Amino acid sequence: MSLAAEPTALPSQAPPARREILGIVFTTILLDFIGFSVLIPVLPIYAKRLGASSVEVGLIVSLYAAAQLLFLPAWGWLSDRVGRRPVLLSSLFGTVLSFLLLALSDTLGMIYLARVLAGIFAASIGTAQAVVTDVTPESERAHGMGVIGAAFGLGFVVGPALGGALAAWSERAPFYAIALLAAANLAVAWLRLPESHPRAAGAWRWDGLGRSFVPTPVRLLAAVHDRRIGLYLYLFFHLFTAFSALESMFTVYVFQRFGMGPGGAARIFTVIGVFIALTQGVLIRRLAPRLGERALVVGGLVLTAGGLLAIPFAPTPGWLYGIGPLIAIGNGLAFPSFTSLYSRATETESAGELLGQSQSMATTGRIAGPLWAGWALDRVALGAPFVIAGVLMAVGLGLFLAFRRLLLGSEAATGGAMPR
Hints:
CATH superfamily of the largest domain: MFS general substrate transporter like domains
Order of helices and strands: HHHHHHHHHHHHHHHHHH
Number of strands: 0
Number of domains: 2
Largest sheet: none
């Protein structure tokens, strides 16, 4: 069997062949996201036992996000020229190496290096999305992209549960498990994943690769956006800066306040993941036609802000099982609805580029958020990251309401499908 199939034949292949390719892509993205979420209840405590401060724990998360932000355009640039298959195989191989290095880490420096490598190779998600585009006709494109969304949702449910369960046996077991799963997926992809994109002919201009490493937020500062798009992009950064405090510091908080280990933190994150999945998969579909997306953004941000503010006032760990779903439902209502409103503000011919920029701003928020949250936990108060995050969410809501006519355009003026 040839390892590189004819790329132009893929879109017209029979559905079973296309399903196999999408299955490999699904598994690859699922492993990337499990690899991120499996560490949420495990790695902060592991790093704390190595003597890390909360800021240094936050830096672990920030370095991963920064590497991903930096390399996302570069992997895409490379896949357009050498093909999707080499990039995805390299990504899986790199994932195996990064988690093996993490499992062997006994210093913070090794942990930092492992997470930078993981972020670099997880940045191939853009290439995985490109494979979906390559092999699906336009009539099935939404379903194909839904595969990617399903992988994200399932990863956030499975990852924390898997991390907590394996950590009960050994703190390093989750790292070895992800390395093993990635190695198995690498073997399947090596044997079964064909090339889906024709390689670029002729000589390449390598300066294009260099330009791809200029971080997207830096390019955005130099770009000319109208006020509406600019405000949306700022709010993506603002809201994700706030929410990343929960992702990065919650495990440290429950460990230091309640003595809760990885298993306990994992159970709470699993509950949060289940409620986010149910909200995005079921609840939002029922509420959006009735209430409108603007109302869901407002209600979702109120719930999220309230839940974050409530965390430091929970007298026992049991209360967190009630607060967690409140945050999850708020997140599941607000963020997809806000993204949908933003997509309406983008012009058709530039929608793809502008939506990509919104993801870059969200990732930038995930770089900044863990750092200030770690500083606040160590230097201000144990519960300070969540109080500040809740206030930031409330400020974001205030900005959304204050500038609603600008953000929503004609729909705000006429009422449209969205109630006032």
